[in-house]
Amino acid sequence: MRRADGQVLLAQRPEGKPWAGWWEFPGGKIEQGESALAALKRELQEELGIEVLAAYPWLTRSFDYPERQVNLHFFMVRDWSGEPQGCEGQILSWQYPYGLNVSPMLPANAPILSALCLPDVYAITNMQELGEAVFFERLQTALDKELRMIQVREKQLSEAALRTFASKVIALAKPYGAKVLLNSDVELAQALEADGVQINSHQLMQMQTKPEGMIFGASCHNELELAHAKQLGLDFVLLSPVLATQSHPDADTLGWASFSNYLVDYPLPVYALGGMQQEHLLTAWQHGAHGIAMQRAAWISGND
Fold it and tell me: N or C: which end of the chain has fewer CB within 10 A?
């Protein structure tokens, strides 16, 4: 369950249950013949006394506990009726995923908390079309409106010019706590102390292990690339193109149905890319995405 302010609901396992005292996301077991969504609605009604009004498929992960392996189907519950209460004697707490003040968390939830720290919208720079002055004006406006993750992608720039441009983006983003990732260039990202790197599909398929100490996202277009990103345990992926884009209007697109099929039982957060507008965010959630990634649409002003 996630509130509009980004806080998520955690529950402490009560005495008498395995792992008593540990914190977890509310949920429970899927009964025979029951769908994961139906199980979620039933369990949250029984455990919290609420009615789920809007829940979207999110991640599916497996975890090996000493006593058994569990397959976990995570949904993002964004709307409900009623005030959550600990109907089974469990203590509840609303928490920001990037700053928990309760512990310990069940071990299976560590990667889930990391995924929850990723924002819903991922913006890709477009200084080439806008011009530098306009771009930085719009970046400032977007940061003021809570943009919290940016990919620096300006293929036309020389190495020196890219370094200068990226440094300015990082400097503007830092006071807001916004994450900045550089496209493809691991060494420059490390030198500039950027938050991470967005690798292309070719780099992805050449990578054997995920480098430590930075956020790593990958651009994917098919099942093979998605599977390799999963094997590496990357932090997130972009899946594209979902819809037609201005830059590649004749390219084959996935469409929402195929996009959703690719994400069945997928463990990593996925951003939908290609033809995205802000109004596509709800549709993306409904089809299993963590959020949307945008280039041109991320920097549209009221005068465009």
Answer: C
